């Protein structure tokens, strides 16, 4: 007949297998992290080089990146103002409609809003 391993040995082998799997996974994650870090550094280097090239092209064309940025900031400010104006108008219309509806509801109940103006 075959030999039966004691329960504690079977349990120890199972735990060791679990730890071996966890260590293998940890090593795989570490290797992946190293590769990702390398790729990220390469991407950052290429982005910096591209910015330098683009900046040089802009300088050659007589228009700098800073001018483009300042134009963009001005345009964003103008767009922000126009959006605020539109929102303010819509809010006024909404409040006016709500006021008219509220006044109509009060009038239906025989009540009125005091419109005493000095």
**Distance between the amino and carboxyl termini:** 111 Å
Percent range of helical residues: over 70%
How big a fraction of the residues is strand?
under 5%
Mean pLDDT: 83
In the residues, how many domains can be counted? Answer: 2
Q: What is the alpha-carbon Rg in Å? A: 36 Å
Low-confidence stretches: none
Topology as H/E string? HH
Q: Compute the number of strand runs.
A: 0
Overall shape: it is elongated
Largest sheet: none
- SS summary, helix count: 2
Q: Based on helices, strands and strand pairing, what is the structural class? A: mainly alpha
Protein name: DUF4558 domain-containing protein
Pfam families: CFAP141
InterPro entries: CFAP141
Could you please describe the fold and organization of this structure?
It is a single chain. The protein has 118 residues and is an all-alpha fold. It folds into two domains: 1-62; 64-118. The protein contains two helices and no strands. The chain has helices at 7-61, 65-108. The N and C termini lie far apart (111 Å).
Q: Would you summarize the structure shown here?
A:
This is DUF4558 domain-containing protein. This protein is mainly α. Helix content is 84%, strand content 0%.
List the helices and strands and how they pair.
Layout: H1 7-61, H2 65-108
Organism: Chloropicon roscoffensis
Protein name: DUF4558 domain-containing protein
